[in-house]
Specification:
about 60 residues, mainly beta, two-stranded antiparallel ribbon, two-stranded antiparallel sheet
Length: about 60
């Protein structure tokens, strides 16, 4: 994960992850893709889909 946080996007809504409370983590299923979550989508449990393995999670 050499990308800076500002270049990553929320996997649900697509906004840049620059806000406090944003997070990114490896896909819980495959571990290959990085899932990004903005505070709004985390709070509202908006679904995300892994680009590598199609895993869906809130």
């Amino acid at each position: 994960m050499s990308e800076g946080k500002s270049s990553q996007r929320c996997s649900s809504c697509g906004i840049f992850l620059v806000d406090r409370g944003s997070s990114s983590f490896p896909c819980p299923n495959c571990g290959n893709a990085t899932i990004g979550r903005c505070p709004n989508c985390k709070d509202q449990s908006v679904k995300y889909v892994c680009e590598e393995c199609s895993f869906e999670g809130p």
